[in-house]
Amino acid sequence: MGGRLEAAKASIVGAVTLATAAWGVTTLVGCGPARATVQHGPAASRTESAPVPDATRSQPAHANSAVVSPLPAVDFAAATDFAAPTDLAAAAPAASEEKPAAVTAVADERLLTTCDRQRGIVIYKAARVLELFCGQELAARYEASLGFAPAGQKQREGDGKTPEGEYFVALKYPSQFHRSLQINYPSAVDAARGLAAGLITQATHDTIVSASRRCVSPPQNTALGSLIQIHGMGGGADSGDWTLGCVAVDNDEIERVYKFQISGCAADGKPHTKVTIHP
Q1: CATH number at residue 106
Q2: What is the C-alpha to C-alpha distance for residues 147 and 239, in angstroms, rounded to an integer?
Q3: What are the strands of the beta sheet with 137-143, ordered from one edge?
Q4: What is the mean pLDDT of the chain?
Q5: Residue predicted with more confidence, 189 or 50
Q6: pLDDT-based confidence at 261, cuts 50/70/90?
Q7: N or C: where does the chain have the smaller number of CB atoms within 10 Å of the terminal CB?
Q8: Does residue 43 sit within a domain?
Q9: Structure pTM?
Q10: Going along the chain, which residue ranges are E strands?
Q11: Half-sphere exposure (CA, 13 Å, Cβ side) for 36?
């Protein structure tokens, strides 16, 4: 796996280039390599430093990338006219000192292809676990990797933290990290936090809240961070926490997640796939 991971981490995620074109972002951000040297294995030492540029790695300067599928492959605007979800402005879930019961439940993978209820992606950061739910039933469980400084709530661009709270899948596309599901970070709750901290203006806050109500992707050029995804190219103890804030799993697993989830919202405003990220 080491060679595959190193090759993947030698380039910025293809989704970054797509979003750069879509939103006019001038600074490349997203879920590329967290540092120049990536260590593997449970016993490998971990550092939570800022990203270190690697002069030997070629990284694209703008959105013209052949790696990313054309825009029609992105499931983006299907829900733009739906009513406002009612549960997206709720406070982020509180931290729990006990491992949630779902982490020890037995998965029924038949639900991956037979689910007829609301789908859920639940991530437990402390346990490094990603779970798929069909209603209240567990369909699958995978080991996951997080941002290079994973502890705590994401506050701003470049802090290396994986967000915590409730989101939905806003975009999906093939990417340089195999497959990417982009969540609606920053959410209305993140916007309220950023406004209180003086990181964004009232106008930016209002734009993010409006996007949440309309079930579309929020602006991806704010100081709160951008392009938070669930993607492939390696997850779990053998990979370490290597992203810039995204959640990573193995390629065969992201294929299942990609097929299982449904982007956007239903006519009643509820997300087809609810994404919950616990501390």
Answers
A1: 2.40.440.10
A2: 12
A3: 137-143, 129-134, 119-124, 273-278, 165-175, 178-183, 229-231, 247-248
A4: 73
A5: 189
A6: very high
A7: N
A8: no
A9: 0.69
A10: 119-124, 129-134, 137-143, 165-175, 178-183, 229-231, 247-248, 273-278
A11: 7
